[in-house]
Specification:
By secondary structure, the protein is an alpha+beta fold. The chain contains 21 helices and 32 strands. Helix 3 packs antiparallel against helix 5 and helix 12 crosses helix 17.
Length: 715
């Protein structure tokens, strides 16, 4: 009996052992065969650290192969927290070497992570200080940082990159996939505490460098543009400025510059408003008279005007219930269409626009690319603002015909002008010529991309001839190029306020043109927003800049000069007469307003010293012979027994500064509107008012002698 029980027990034990053995074998098979790969990967992840090794970003070169942007080695500081000995002391030393906050460094080196960045892409001197510390767990890892070899040259074109070498703006962003390359990785095996295992796994997967870009930009022409932009800033102190130079036959942008600008390598030190947007492709403005090129093109192409067309300008034109004024007081009288273009006569262009009608006018506005993006290979391009065709009234057509009631970008305007220069063919603007591999193999090239024909060849040639007359006989004489047939158009437009309407005293000065007329090599646009100093006409601010850029660029390109070219004729309103000799009147003891009237009548200027209402002394003295325009210094004194009433002086013909000084001296306050010289004042001169009262004065251009003095609408 006992033997039977023992056998049963042994049998049961054996059965259980077999079951246990089979279970263990099954579990082992499950782990090894089914989950083996998964568990092996988990084990690797626990003991293996992958460190990304970024690829070297590709170079950006100009059209001639000059390297504008490259990548150079830069050390980055990283820590393996588990290996840091004495974290508090190490943090103090490391923070001092890196010029960082000690607490910030301490938090980073004590993180519960296998690998932590402390500071990326430090300079050589900082890297040497860190290396000399010889801190355990602190490593210097070689990366690369972007180096812009020409400082701020073409900053908005080139763009910027982030700390991880990712493109954030400009070409760097637009062609990030080509430039960035393929990152590699370094595989390091560690134990559970993060310490390196002796003779452990170390494997490097090398990164693949990025491709190189060749731009259409010409470094030398870009320097010409940057030089002139700096001069604009020094002379006119504008809110911003843009210059673009384009090849009209290929659409290649040879230079593009903006002010204000920034250094791409130090973009974090510049306000975001400067580096975040490219005004040349983003900023909207009413183009003013430069847009009259489109109106003239449409009128010629549709046969609305020809050489024999006559126009009459009485100084205004009535459209619907509004009167739109010409910039010339009294008008231009009877004139041909050629003279309308030369004089930039508002009524003439408005009549041409109205004769075209809404459908035909919009046909050409859209054909030239307004109201849509040009497709230039840069991020952030705006498409402009165009009143929907179905909502446009005759008044809208009239104002659009002279460059108002439409908002464009500089790149749209120069592309349209380039189409005229290119015999009516619109070409897409571009900034990249080719993409090249790191080994020098050309991967992709970019050719001229024709968009559409916008003008018949004959109409384009006729318009070019008319625009050449603008430079020879009209408002563009300051843009004349010696030895080259030059065509162009000036513009002076008012600045639109944030809430609509025009801002008094603020203007946009511009000029767009091309040369040589018979075979255009370059078209250049200059736009200056809100120039200061009293000079704001496109013919005075922008045309001379066009001349300076084009003269140097054409000579640099080796474009041969043409002998025997027609010389420009200055329009009557730009001819300066020699100053005449005048006699200074005797002003001592005269009331201030009477003294000022005498000086104005003699063609003299003045400045005031002291306080009071009567002239105590003057320099030069009465009877002295001086040139017209000389400034006379008036010393003032106060009469005893001054009452609360004063006589309003006559300030017409004075500048804002002179009028303010004169009114202040007699105890009154100026409230100006507009800019230029005083035309109308309220209350009128001679009126008795209480001391301290405000005097409203309207200021305007002294002669209204500009090609595109902004149209003013009167009910």
């Amino acid at each position: 009996m006992t033997n039977i029980v023992m056998r049963k027990r042994l049998t049961l034990l054996l059965f259980l052992a077999v079951i246990l053995f089979v279970t263990l074998i099954g579990r082992l098979a499950w782990l090894q065969l089914v989950r083996g790969g998964e568990l092996e990967q988990g084990a690797l992840e626990n003991r293996v650290r992958e460190i990304v090794v970024e690829a070297r970003r590709g170079d950006i070169c100009d059209r001639n192969g000059k390297v504008l942007v490259t990548s150079v080695s830069a050390d980055s500081v990283a820590v393996i927290p588990a290996q840091v000995e004495g974290p508090r002391e190490a943090a103090a030393k490391l923070a001092k070497a890196l010029a960082m906050d000690e607490e910030k460094v301490f938090k980073r080196i004590t993180k519960r992570e296998a690998f932590v960045w402390v500071k990326r892409k430090i300079d050589f001197a900082t890297a040497r200080r860190v290396r000399n510390l010889k801190l355990s767990g602190v490593e210097l890892i070689e990366e690369s940082r972007r180096q812009y070899n020409r400082g701020s040259l073409a900053a908005h074109v080139l763009g910027i990159v982030g700390v991880d070498n990712q493109g954030l703006g400009g070409i760097e962003l637009a062609y990030d996939r080509d430039l960035v390359g393929k990152p590699g990785k370094m595989v390091v095996e560690q134990d559970a505490t993060g310490r390196e295992i002796p003779a452990a796994l170390h494997r490097l997967h090398k990164p693949v460098p990025g491709n190189n870009l060749f731009l259409t930009i010409d470094e030398t022409i870009q320097y010409f543009v940057e030089r002139e932009l700096d001069k604009i800033v020094d002379t006119h102190h504008p809110a911003s400025a843009v210059i673009i130079v384009m090849d009209p036959k290929t659409g290649e942008i040879l230079a593009l510059g903006n002010r204000p600008t920034f250094a791409p390598g130090k973009w974090r030190e510049t306000p975001q408003a400067v580096w975040d947007r490219n005004p040349a492709i983003w900023r909207l403005y009413e183009p003013g008279s430069t847009f009259k090129i489109v109106t003239a093109a449409a009128a010629l192409a549709e046969g609305v005007v020809d050489e024999g067309s006559r126009f009459y300008c009485p100084g205004f034109i009535k459209v619907a219930d509004r009167r739109i004024r010409c910039w010339k007081a009294g008008g231009h009288g009877s004139q041909s269409f050629e003279e309308v273009v030369q004089h930039s006569c508002n009524p003439g262009f408005i009549q041409a626009g109205l004769d075209l009608g809404r459908e035909r006018f919009y046909k050409y506005v859209k054909a030239f690319g307004f109201g849509q993006r040009t497709g230039i290979n840069l991020p952030g391009e705006a498409k402009g603002i165009l009143i929907p065709e179905e909502k446009a009234t005759s008044l809208n057509i009239a104002t659009m015909a002279i460059g108002q009631s439409i908002a464009v970008t500089p790149i749209q305007l120069i592309t349209a002008a380039a189409a005229v220069a290119n015999e009516g063919e619109l070409i897409k603007p571009r900034l990249v010529q080719a993409v090249q591999s790191p080994e020098g193999r050309v991967l992709r090239t970019f050719k001229a991309e024709r968009v559409r024909r916008v003008l018949p060849e004959e109409a384009a040639r006729e318009l070019k001839r008319l625009l050449e007359k603008v430079v020879l006989k009209g408002t563009g004489v300051n843009a004349y190029l010696e030895g080259y047939r030059t065509a162009g158009k000036t513009g002076t437009a008012q600045v639109v306020g944030p809430a609509g309407g025009y801002v008094p005293g603020k203007y946009v000065s511009s000029f767009v043109g091309f040369a040589p007329v018979d075979d255009p090599r370059l078209v250049t646009l200059v736009v200056v927003w809100e120039p200061k100093g009293g000079i704001y006409f496109g013919s005075q601010v922008a045309a001379p800049v066009f001349k300076a850029v084009m003269e140097d660029a054409l000579r640099y390109l080796g474009v041969p000069q043409q002998a025997g070219r027609e010389k420009p004729e200055k329009p009557w309103y730009m001819i300066e007469e020699e100053p005449k000799s005048v006699t200074v009147p005797e002003l001592v003891n005269l009331p201030l307003d009477e003294a000022v009237r005498s000086l104005k009548a003699a063609g003299l200027r003045f400045t005031l010293r002291g306080d009071g209402e009567v002239v105590r002394a003057q320099v030069p003295q009465g009877g002295a012979a001086v040139l017209a325009g000389t400034k006379v210094v008036l010393e003032l004194k106060t009469l005893r027994g001054n009452g609360t009433e004063v006589t309003v002086p006559d300030v017409t013909g004075l500048t804002i500064k002179e009028a303010a000084a004169l009114l202040e001296k007699v105890g009154l306050t100026l409230v100006p509107s507009g800019s230029g010289v005083a035309r109308v004042q309220q209350p009128a001169a001679g009126t008795k008012v209480r001391r301290g009262q405000t005097i409203k004065v309207e200021f305007a251009s002294p002669e209204r002698l500009e090609d595109s003095e902004p149209a003013v609408l009167h009910p």
